[in-house]
Amino acid sequence: MTARRLLFGGDYNPEQWDEDTWREDIRLMQEARVTTVTLGVFAWGFLEVDDDVWEWDWFDHVIGMLSHAGIGIALATPTAAPPTWLHRRHPEIIPVDRQGVRFHQGGRLGWCASHPVWHGYSTRVARRLGERYGRHPAVEMWHVGNEFGGGNRHCYCEESSTAFRAWLRARYGTIDALNRAWGTAVWGLRYRDFDDVIAPLASESGQSPSLLLAFDRFSSDALLAQYRRERGTLRDAGVRTPITTNLMLTVGGSVADYVDWVPELDVVAIDHYTQAADPHRERELAFVASRARGLDRSKPWLLMEHAPSAVNWQSRNRPKEPGEMTRHSIQHIAHGSDGALFFQWRASPSGVEQYHSGLVPHAGTRTRQWGEVVALGGILERISETAGSLVTPSAVAVVADIPAKWAWEEGQKPLNGYPLERAGRRWHEALAARGLVPDVVSPTADLSGYRLLVVPGMYAVDDDAADRIAGAAAAGATIVVGHLSGIVDAENRVRTGGYPGAFRTLLGVFGEELHPLLDGERMALASGAVAADWAERLRAVDADVIDTYRGGPLDGLPAVTRRRVGAGSAWYISADLDAGLGDLVDAVVADAGVRADVPVVPGVEAVRRERDGATWLFLVNHGGTDATVDATGVELVHGQEVRTSLTVAAGGVAVIRETAAAAR
Amino acid sequence: MTARRLLFGGDYNPEQWDEDTWREDIRLMQEARVTTVTLGVFAWGFLEVDDDVWEWDWFDHVIGMLSHAGIGIALATPTAAPPTWLHRRHPEIIPVDRQGVRFHQGGRLGWCASHPVWHGYSTRVARRLGERYGRHPAVEMWHVGNEFGGGNRHCYCEESSTAFRAWLRARYGTIDALNRAWGTAVWGLRYRDFDDVIAPLASESGQSPSLLLAFDRFSSDALLAQYRRERGTLRDAGVRTPITTNLMLTVGGSVADYVDWVPELDVVAIDHYTQAADPHRERELAFVASRARGLDRSKPWLLMEHAPSAVNWQSRNRPKEPGEMTRHSIQHIAHGSDGALFFQWRASPSGVEQYHSGLVPHAGTRTRQWGEVVALGGILERISETAGSLVTPSAVAVVADIPAKWAWEEGQKPLNGYPLERAGRRWHEALAARGLVPDVVSPTADLSGYRLLVVPGMYAVDDDAADRIAGAAAAGATIVVGHLSGIVDAENRVRTGGYPGAFRTLLGVFGEELHPLLDGERMALASGAVAADWAERLRAVDADVIDTYRGGPLDGLPAVTRRRVGAGSAWYISADLDAGLGDLVDAVVADAGVRADVPVVPGVEAVRRERDGATWLFLVNHGGTDATVDATGVELVHGQEVRTSLTVAAGGVAVIRETAAAAR
Amino acid sequence: MTARRLLFGGDYNPEQWDEDTWREDIRLMQEARVTTVTLGVFAWGFLEVDDDVWEWDWFDHVIGMLSHAGIGIALATPTAAPPTWLHRRHPEIIPVDRQGVRFHQGGRLGWCASHPVWHGYSTRVARRLGERYGRHPAVEMWHVGNEFGGGNRHCYCEESSTAFRAWLRARYGTIDALNRAWGTAVWGLRYRDFDDVIAPLASESGQSPSLLLAFDRFSSDALLAQYRRERGTLRDAGVRTPITTNLMLTVGGSVADYVDWVPELDVVAIDHYTQAADPHRERELAFVASRARGLDRSKPWLLMEHAPSAVNWQSRNRPKEPGEMTRHSIQHIAHGSDGALFFQWRASPSGVEQYHSGLVPHAGTRTRQWGEVVALGGILERISETAGSLVTPSAVAVVADIPAKWAWEEGQKPLNGYPLERAGRRWHEALAARGLVPDVVSPTADLSGYRLLVVPGMYAVDDDAADRIAGAAAAGATIVVGHLSGIVDAENRVRTGGYPGAFRTLLGVFGEELHPLLDGERMALASGAVAADWAERLRAVDADVIDTYRGGPLDGLPAVTRRRVGAGSAWYISADLDAGLGDLVDAVVADAGVRADVPVVPGVEAVRRERDGATWLFLVNHGGTDATVDATGVELVHGQEVRTSLTVAAGGVAVIRETAAAAR
After folding, report:
1. Which fold has domain A396-592?
2. Which of B467, C29, C167, C425 could in theory staple to C34 by disulfide, Cβ–Cβ 3.0 to 4.6 A?
3. Which of C16, C43, C318 is closest, CB to CB, to B516?
4. In degrees, to the nearest 5, what angle opens at C-alpha A531 toward C-alphas A525 and A532?
5. Which CATH superfamily is domain A35-262 in?
6. Exactly one of A305, A324, A372, A421 is catalytic; which is it?
7. Do A350 and C210 touch (CB under 8 A)?
8. What's the burial of B226, exposed, middle or buried (CB within 10 Å: 0-12/13-18/19+)?
9. ipTM of the complex
10. Per residue in C96-142, pLDDT tens?
């Protein structure tokens, strides 16, 4: 086995500290076995200190120190935060809000992705960095900008309107096509030509859901174009190492449609932050990590940022519990990340993020936290052989799609403020509890390998995606379509003729009427399951009725159906059953004939990675009691042989290099 | 009996559909026995496709098809939604918000009622329509604009300020009179001349309640002036058929003071939408329908819009229950509407209202909903003889007033966010439960026919209205003044010298101090009734004490009083008793000596209409069980003779042409 | 004993009334024994009726009437509300909000403290008033403006940015010093020179907590500068009587840092309004009154405004209970106010404050309220000998600081929306319940006289203050530092190296990590106390552990510690124990060796004032039952001798001139 490593480290902002601290940082990085730091994310104002006035010496020096210490660098283009002088000279690059009022200096992502002046300044700084450090041996990776869209997702300035029109011309070709696609005849808002269109600045009443969705797509593309602009500049300047950026991927996150970004990323990299108030945040993490994996299943991905402990932006920023940072890091790696990087190396005393935790906390190194950091560095070193491996392919996937979420959130809906993504997370949890390791994939992914495909809350779907899902059923897969799927098309237009339009034929049902429930209202099913929030007036046209509504206005009507489709089957769950999915999950798993991928032990998350015939079983005990898992091999974290089973301590982690026969 | 009909149909927007759909629409309208469609509400951009460029052919064609099919047309001036080209050319017509920031294109009512440019464009399109279709035989009615003020109630642009000043000059004559009326000496905000006044754009602190109320009145008048401008244009262009517009009348609705609009309407027409979360929405409907009737008791009114099922603009848009559309339609007709029109004919897949239900739903005609539509068309045909009749005059009325609500909602109040209109609805419900069919009338209505007049939450009242109410008591009526009545005058100025200033003498009481209660606080009365939200420190000067407060700071003081006034009496209820009105209602009903107008059967709403000696008893069973009502005559919905009583099925409706002796 | 008096009266706005009312007012003032009215607060527009056009006659007349009636005048510069003509001529003086949008005319404090045009107009009117009335014998005091910052605390206009930059230059000297102090390297937001800085107008993301805090300090200073500008103008114009303004002091109030204002005030004057929904608003009042006293312990202060009954600006403006106005007035005087003035003399029927109560209510004088007003006037006359006395010095103080609150509220915090001031109020209550009369003082006060010093929620603290607190401990005091103290420095920068940085050495502890708790989360302590909202991962380095956390992630770690420090001791309470402070208070009181200052009788608040050897014991019975207090002397309110004890009626008040031996 060749020398491999899992990345460990995080964002490093030396511009905030003096040289003595730099030296201490290097020493502590070595103590903690840090492999990699992300450098320069917020350094623009310290490199280009005024318009085209550059100061490189200090940066050269820091890079030299890191290089000398054997610490790899992910070098950022510093476009996440324009310097104050640039905002003072060019306030016109700052985003404009929906009311048409421009923001001001003093924040972070204070730029409009469509503004030509911004394009000039941002590419110049990227080019200068690329030219200077493009071939530096310590610079192992490039990190373009930071959290694209995290503050500047939408801009409503005139340059944005101009760019939006160009984007629309490219998408629709003719204004008639646009008018048809958006149904602008409603309220008589037809456009005569593309010049009639502006960004969806606030009107005195609501606005077209199609316009709003198109603007979301455009805005995502404008951010992607900026990424590509910087990436191309770096390549032109001679950069040969991998280039990526950190996608803001969480269950509810939706600033951009990352599926389109993947082809432009040499490695998929994500940021992930848990919600302190979520009692099962580890499950949300598993969902997101599965989704990161699903973006590009051909190679490992990279956790670019997570938090050592508390963050600063939630209402109550409770710190992580002892051991939680380690469990979360190992979870991400188990799900395919080739490392665990953090925001940030050293906690800042100042600025907006002054309460965001760091690997080196405000209190310094005589702390529980630093002890856990050093221990984690050791663990990652001991399990470094897993680097480069892939999660064992799964027969099960949950489909998720960011534009479907946009479509649901833009405009007035039957049920407003409803978390479309909740059902997907619930299915992922329920399948994981049965020893499956579901991928989370977009509808454009290759679906051919899956025997069980769950399609929950796929509110907007284009014909191609609907066809591909139907094709998977015909080819033998079990498809489970959840409520609020297939309702609208890619233009946010309701598919008429019976809900859920895109899947009606596949499912063999005819939905007469969507039936959101009132706050607190419950609707019983014959099976004993209980619906909240959502139901549907449904008829089974060519499907078996598995469960029915009992009582109320839908009494006796189908709630859950199944249709045989070629070699496969297609289930429809018309109600939001949320926590009460239990029996249904067993039924569809049985129908699909899939078996557990990993051992099932309550409280223990198990994921397997493999490479060249070798397999590693990752075990994370989220529970409060020790748990014993059947396995054979060598446990790498504690370095012990495992003959038939291993006991993982409460809150602990283990990674077993399995004896060949043991795997699967 | 001459050929009569009740109108049935709704808004029809052919510009959203192709010609094949038009043909299907006509066929379906005939299947459902549709009599009337409202055409052109949002068609402006399809008629005037650019500035003074007109396309009439398609509209001629649609009108011809409808005419040929025998379907009547309510033709709209399309001013509810200016076309995009107009906003692009003249963004200055779009309303400005309180901060002084102008809205943008893309919505619905994007116009300022005071803007001269708007006046020009809106009257030109009205004139062209009037000239072209003013004498078309299928155009049976004209529908000016749509939901005036539903989005553009207030505009704070400079043209609005200019028009506001002109309005103030007309109302007050001199600036001294205005200064006195508003009490501008408070905070030293006296105006030197009218030119000092601007629209109440946001200041860094609160603003004068008198200024705010005046701006509400002005804004209502500005909308009315726009209505009159279009109506006058139509008449000038040769229109001879009735002209109206759809008033947004609900319990809490208050975009304009519709009492002033009635003289300009050839028929009172309203829109009414229930709140899905209101478990007794049928009672709110009855209140509103009684209010529509009260606006002009001399002739039937018209329900211009209600929803076939769900709407799109509430938080949770639960659909109507099976049968509910029918019950609501019959309720409105029972209360005096000569028909039941809907928004909208065919549900749109696009636009802001894509989830507003239609008579033809997204799922098409193979649906429960379409079945109920067709059945309803049949019912309306079978009860068509009731058209033109009036609700039997009632001896009981509840007084309601929109400017009183404005006065309460503008400025800082003893109890903020409190629903002033709640008490009126509660009284209406309580009286209806006793077999009465109360009118809901404005204080300017002719009050002479009422024996019992309830005046709840008439917060602002001018001297004339107060005198007329007192006069009704002197003439023998029982007057019940509720809390929060008569506190301020028409200028939103507190009437000093003891609350409730306008009614103090009539009631024989002296209110020392208003006494709002804290959230969750309750105050008991000696009778066992319980006050929440509101009480008052009261003395009985010349009145009998009916009930007193018990415990707390008002212990032993009067809560409810009665004063003998000439042949009548005047009650005062100083506390908010909300749900606990029971015994009090019985007492005032007894005091007034009024008897039930209709049979009292729990769950069944009964209303009688009459014409030329004939009477019809409408019965709507809102309950979950069948109910039997004493009656004699012929039931028209199911076509059966009624000898002594009729059983109305749970959720069902009935209309009995009564045998002469049976009525009253 | 020389003739003394306690001030009684309130804001008088004759410009709102006619001359007949003036005469009635004077008569009623005399009936109520009013000593003092504040005149002219909102009279600008009636004195300067247009730019430099003056009308003095009416004002001369009113002043003459008051003078003739022997009623003293606190004459206001009328700058609280610029006249409409000034806003029309110079809208540029109106504040601009954070988005950069200017407000409009029609409110109250519509001026930017940094605007040169405002400076010109405001000083001209002050000079004219000073010249005309500066030596008028009835004008006993001057009242500059009104509630500075109550609406115009922050202005973000360009003149404000300019003034902010000048202020920054003066504070920091060099831009490098500012960059270091604020840590602008975070997000690379370094300024090249002061011209790069603007007011913290909204950005698309958060902004530096140091910038925001600096702007709060600047804004406070800009208001103070305006106060000084007007005060200096008055002095230059010949005013020789005391000059002050009414500070908006409440527990949570924080529009300006009043500690800096005290040197400019000839007497500390405050406004105080209770929250109707606070069931223990009398305790909040005691805290605030103690704070007013703490601002300048060398002389009595003055309650310039409180409410006769209801206010108009809360959600539910419940009136005061019978007797409450009297109790509140006596409470303030007990705590050192030389009088009880009210907003306002006569309730206005108009304007924003139309529902703010007056001494003469809307209902007039045949009211319970007026009776209590007259009675209160009599009481104040009977206890007038207490004027000029001081509250007996206390050995106990609670430290409070407005900039510490700003620092906590600006920026993203571990626990957002948390009321930092709550702990201080709880300690004040708990100490008062033990017969102590704690001062509330700023950290810059002379701390040498206190044996027990409670430092709760002193989130931001500079080195000097921290040193002075440590010095008090070394000199023998017991110091109790509460959670969320000493975390950041005066620049809102976290003090690194272990929490709570400023007090770590004094306390002998090392805080590893701040540990906010989730909503609803509780954490038990070994003693049985229970923490909510806040805890801390703490180690005792050089301190005794008094209490520990039990269970959860902090199990077994110290929660409360004590360190012996020279002759004193320093306690640390790392958790929010809120209502459960009980045993801890007893322990620290015992540790400090302080004894009750006043008799302890449940429900009765007791405070002692003294002068020249005489002492007066004020007793306020907040309870619902009569209470007996041990005392000897003469009770002045009812005029009775007190031999050994006095029974104070439920809800009643008493003031005992004590027999010499009885005091202390």
Report:
1. Rossmann fold (3.40.50)
2. C29
3. C318
4. 155
5. Glycosidases (3.20.20.80)
6. A305
7. yes
8. buried
9. 0.97
10. 999 999 999 999 999 999 999 999 999 999 999 999 999 999 999 99
